[in-house]
Design the sequence.
């Protein structure tokens, strides 16, 4: 009896291959072993986050940018001064110094100043700028009668670290240097009533040829025990809007301090300071008054003295940190 033919497909499945090909064996050997099913994330480029700058680095970058901006403004300022110098707008002036103008600038800056920077540091910064501006408009040098190193330091801080400065042993030598054109500014100690006659330089000041133009320092945080000086230069200073004048009075005979004070006050010249010196029957007085006092001021005419000679004026100094 014949066997029935085996069906090619049973239950929808292919029958197993009874005679596998050698190629099939090779394919099985090379195929990776099947492992447990896993969810594989899609491949993507990994980007590392930029490092966050430290607070110190951020602050330094900001300071660098501010320094660049400040430097740009300083260079612009110097260019304006150079144009002014080239224009000869100040032609004929015996000195490039404008102490009244400088005082107005510093007062304006001090009035608007605030924050952590001390006002004294602000003034020091601008004093260097102002000295440099004056040097751009005409070289000048300073002669100092220095009773000690402090007076030389005071002159240096006011007129700038690059300004030529020399110290001379007496007040008369300093004034002679300015009169001869060897220096453009004399810095002399603030007069004291009890000082020796040879130190009282104001008694022989050749005014109006030489006049007091500034009081140093212009700004100080404290007024107590403050070292001060006066600057003298050829010609009259420029007013600042808030000034004080020095007046030299000479009178024969004896006058008391009260008499002189009363006469000055009656003339409208209220003394802020009055120093007296008596020598050989002649009374000499140094008087400080508010405002600008010139030789043609009518208030001088009625004074009961032999001679009243203005010695110049200066911007009233600023005392006390107000920033």
Sequence:
């Amino acid at each position: 009896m014949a066997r029935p033919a085996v069906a090619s497909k049973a239950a929808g499945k292919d029958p197993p291959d009874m005679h596998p090909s050698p190629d099939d064996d090779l394919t099985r050997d090379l195929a990776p072993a099947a492992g447990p099913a896993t969810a594989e994330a899609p491949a993507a480029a990994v980007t590392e986050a930029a490092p966050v700058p430290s607070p110190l680095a951020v602050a330094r970058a900001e300071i660098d940018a501010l320094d660049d901006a400040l430097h740009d403004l300083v260079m612009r300022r110097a260019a304006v001064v150079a144009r002014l110098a080239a224009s000869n707008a100040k032609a004929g002036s015996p000195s490039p110094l404008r102490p009244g103008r400088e005082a107005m600038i510093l007062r304006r800056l001090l009035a608007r100043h605030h924050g952590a920077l001390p006002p004294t540091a602000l003034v020091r910064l601008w004093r260097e700028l102002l000295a440099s501006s004056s040097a751009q408009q005409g070289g000048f040098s300073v002669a100092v009668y220095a009773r000690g190193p402090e007076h030389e330091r005071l002159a240096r801080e006011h007129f700038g670290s690059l300004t030529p400065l020399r110290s001379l042993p007496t007040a008369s030598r300093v004034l002679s240097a300015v009169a001869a054109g060897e220096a453009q500014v004399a810095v002399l100690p603030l007069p004291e009533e009890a000082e020796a006659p040879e130190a009282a330089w104001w008694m022989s000041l050749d005014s109006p040829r030489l006049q007091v133009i500034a009081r140093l320092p212009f700004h100080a945080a404290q007024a107590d025990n403050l070292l001060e000086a006066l600057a003298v230069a050829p010609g009259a200073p420029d007013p600042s809007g808030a000034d004080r004048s020095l007046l030299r009075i000479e009178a024969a005979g004896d006058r008391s301090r009260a008499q002189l004070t009363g006469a000055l006050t009656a003339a409208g010249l209220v003394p802020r300071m009055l120093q007296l010196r008596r020598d050989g029957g002649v009374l000499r007085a140094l008087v400080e008054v508010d405002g600008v006092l010139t030789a043609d001021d009518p208030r001088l005419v009625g004074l009961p003295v032999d001679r009243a000679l203005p010695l110049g004026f200066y911007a009233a100094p600023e005392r006390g940190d107000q920033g």
About this structure: The radius of gyration is 43 Å. Helices lie at 22-30, 55-86, 99-112, 119-136, 149-159, 171-179, 257-266.
